[in-house]
Specification:
Blueprint (H helix, E strand, L loop, with lengths): L3 E3 L15 H9 L4 E4 L8 H6 L3 E3 L7 E3 L14 E4 L11 H9 L3 E4 L15 H22 L18 H18 L8 E6 L3 H10 L5 E2 L2 H6 L8 E6 L1 H4 E3 L7 H6 L4 E3 L10 E4 L13 H9 L7 E4 L21 E5 L4 E4 L6 E4 L9 H21 L13 H5 L1 E4 L2 E2 L11
Parallel strand pairs: 1-2, 1-4, 2-3, 4-5, 5-6, 7-9, 7-12, 8-9, 12-13, 13-16
Antiparallel strand pairs: 6-17, 10-11, 14-15, 14-16, 17-18
Helix pairs in contact: 4-6
Length: 429
């Protein structure tokens, strides 16, 4: 039986999540599965909580056959015939992770990516997405308050904190409810009424963001109302959820079909720029790759700024693809320094809240700002697969490797070789 290891996260200082929590480790060890936990002084659950649950606390993962992590592992971390499971961020050929992937392959290791553990319909089974949405929305509202302060605008959002500074999600929700109550009592500053908040996407991320947005007690508006610029409600907060079908049209006039769009994105054009001029705060929660149209282009921002018609003040890019769907996302930011101001006039950005342009929050490890709740959710989804990982013979050739279908589908590399479904990554290597 394979020894299961849980490594210490070292990519980011404030990465405090764990793929398995102590209560789930207790159940697994009672079933005879050997689990080692690499000692960590920052993990949201203490070493002694894991040891009390039956795990062996270790200084490294040298004795483990299967190593679980959350974020990417160091380039030279990998060993022959060992299996690593983490969010690798390689399936789009991301150039910044190709050296890591090359080293993993050269070492003769196996890689399983959580992102590709899916059911037969392609739906992800193990994810942090909702917590990215929750933390991302909290951070976006906080960033809006800080940006408004910098612009000399008194605003109820100024009383909010960054997500990781709350002890629990419920505490953040309570603060947002109080801010909303204050806002509804005193109203918005002149020229800001109504404040329009747009949230893109229809998956777990956007659902998490909408869960927080609903605490603002705003009016839910349609994209048609947004497009027309007419607001039929006296509520100072207007919230709109923009899904792909709201801004994508088939070039031949056919009805929008999501499956067809995913398969043939070149057959669709975007009309989202008809919606953008009316939005104050834009929260991006879509899945995106380079085949899809961008949502916010630098060229559009520059034209709006030059004409004096740029209404957009704050962007919360939860999707966080650098120069991706939000083209002015210049970098993935860290929890300690989460916001920059992008100036579309000169295509430059400056960290912090000062300067001309748009404040952009682009933290790429948002679930770690809610580490306890996020880890609990993730662990409950991962736990059912641990026994199969412990029993699997990873030395078998890939065709004979016995794993549940969702896990086997997520094997990117097996013993140093890209598996058939992921051979396309060779071109990026």
């Amino acid at each position: 039986m394979n020894r299961i290891g849980i490594r210490h996260e070292d990519k980011y200082t404030l990465e405090r999540r764990t793929p398995l929590i102590p209560s789930d480790v207790r159940e697994l060890t009672k079933d005879g599965i050997e689990i080692h936990i690499e000692s960590s002084d920052k993990r949201i659950f203490r070493d002694d909580e894991f040891s009390n649950a039956g795990a062996a606390v270790a200084d490294n993962m040298a004795e483990c056959d299967v190593v679980l992590g959350v974020k990417e592992m160091p380039e030279n971390y990998f060993a022959k015939d060992r299996t690593y499971i983490f969010f690798s961020h390689v399936i789009k050929g991301q150039p910044y992770n190709m050296p890591m992937l090359r080293n993993l392959m050269s070492a003769g290791s196996t890689l399983i990516d959580y992102e590709k553990i899916e059911d037969e319909n392609g739906r992800r089974l193990i994810f942090f997405g909702r917590y990215a949405g929750l933390a991302g929305m909290v951070n976006t509202l906080w960033a809006a308050g800080k940006r408004f302060e910098e612009l000399g605008i008194e605003h109820a959002f100024s009383r909010l904190k960054q997500a990781y500074r709350y002890n629990a999600l419920d505490e953040a929700k309570s603060d947002i409810k109080e801010a909303a109550k204050h806002l509804h009592n005193i109203g918005l500053p002149e020229g800001m009424n109504p404040l329009i908040i747009a949230i893109t996407g229809d998956g777990n991320v956007s659902q998490g963001a909408l869960e927080i947005a609903e605490l603002l007690q705003g009016n839910s508006m349609t994209t048609e109302e947004l497009r027309s610029g007419k607001h039929f409600d006296t509520n100072p907060i207007q919230i709109v959820n923009i899904t792909p079908g709201d801004y994508l049209t088939h070039i031949d006039g056919k009805e929008f079909d999501l499956a067809d769009y995913i398969a043939n994105p070149e057959c669709y054009r975007s009309s989202i720029e008809e919606l953008l001029p009316h939005i104050d705060i834009f929260v991006n929660g879509i899945y995106w790759d380079e085949r899809y149209p961008k949502l916010i282009k630098k060229e559009w921002l520059k034209k709006q700024a030059q004409s004096g018609e740029l209404k957009l003040r704050v962007i919360g890019d939860i999707t966080c693809d650098v120069h991706g769907s939000v083209e002015c996302t210049e970098k993935a930011t860290e929890i300690e320094d989460p916001v920059f101001v992008y100036n579309p006039s000169d295509d430059r950005f400056k960290m912090g809240f000062r300067g001309d342009g748009i404040a952009v929050m682009a933290v790429d490890i948002l679930p770690s700002e809610l580490p306890r709740e996020a880890s609990e959710h993730f662990s409950s989804a991962l736990k059912p697969y641990i026994k199969a990982l412990a029993n699997a013979d990873f030395l078998q050739e890939f065709s004979k490797l016995h794993l549940p279908a969702p896990l086997k589908k997520a094997v990117i590399v097996h013993r140093g070789e890209l598996t058939p479904e992921y051979k396309y990554i060779e071109e990026f290597l």
